[in-house]
Design a protein that fits this description.
- The complex is a heterodimer.
- Chain A contains no helices and 12 strands.
- Chain A is mainly beta.
- In chain A, strands 2, 5, 6, 10, 11 and 12 form a 6-stranded mixed sheet that branches.
- Chain A is globular, with a radius of gyration of 13 Å.
- The model of chain A has no long low-confidence stretch (mean pLDDT about 95).
- Chain B is an all-beta fold.
- Chain B is globular.
- The N and C termini of chain B lie far apart (about 35 Å).
- The mean pLDDT of chain B is about 90.
- The chains are: A mainly beta, B mainly beta.
- The interface between A and B is medium-sized, with 22 and 28 residues.
């Protein structure tokens, strides 16, 4: 079975500071990896995804993530955050093309002025 | 661009009542997924459909059923509602079996409150 662990439930950070949201996964087979963002009272929006190829993937809103197969990690980073980045961030995996997503517990990013 | 449409957006029901949630996928998406997100929880997969056939099943209670229709929209039917069914229900769609297009696009969700 697959599982996803987001190591930090809450990450407070000041505006314009860099941030890293950590995600580790467990799977005996290859996976597809995703980061979604959920703003308050809204649905899930895709930030970025890793399907294959380059291990560094760039997404929307200046976010990027690096797939590390040996560490089974897919950490999300942004060099300079804005107040508007305050949201819940979910890391997710699927093991088959078109398969269900398995989500981590979420990380609440709180950006303070 | 068109997005996934869910209706209703909010629903209040009493215990033991029934509810029907509807999902309209992005045009040309043939796969629909349902997820349940309890308060403060991560989304949990319930069920999915590909070309109107059930393709996978997760932790969906027997009181719930779902189907995908010929126009690809899907409905989640929930009977004998319990307080614990109060949650945000997401529908997602994808053109799942086109390589490189595995991304699931989520709707805004239906917030169900059972009193």
């Amino acid at each position: 079975a697959q599982s996803v662990t987001q190591l930090d439930s809450q990450v407070p950070v000041f505006e314009e500071a860099p941030v890293e949201l950590r995600c580790n996964y467990s799977s005996s087979v290859s996976v597809y990896l995703f980061w979604y963002v959920q703003y308050p009272n809204q649905g899930l929006q895709l930030l970025l995804k890793y399907l294959s190829g380059s291990t560094l993937v760039k997404g929307i809103n200046g976010f990027e993530a690096e797939f590390n197969k040996s560490q089974t990690s897919f950490h999300l980073r942004k060099p300079s955050v804005h107040i508007s980045d305050t949201a819940e961030y979910f890391c997710a995996v699927s093991v088959t093309q078109g398969g269900k997503l398995i989500f981590g517990q979420g990380t609440e990013l709180s950006v303070k002025p | 661009a068109a997005g996934v449409i869910q209706s209703p957006r909010h629903l209040i029901k009493e215990k033991r009542e029934t509810a029907t949630l509807k999902c309209y996928p992005i045009p040309r998406h043939d796969t629909v997924y349902w997820y349940q997100q309890g308060p403060g929880q991560d989304p949990q997969f319930l069920i999915s459909f590909y070309e109107k056939m059930q393709s996978d099943k997760g932790s969906i209670p027997d009181r719930f059923s779902a189907q995908q229709f010929s126009d690809y929209h899907s409905e989640l039917n929930m009977s004998s509602l319990e307080l614990g069914d109060s949650a945000l229900y997401f529908c997602a769609s994808s053109p799942a079996y086109i390589r490189g297009q595995e991304t699931q696009y989520f709707g805004p969700g239906t917030r169900l409150l059972v009193l």
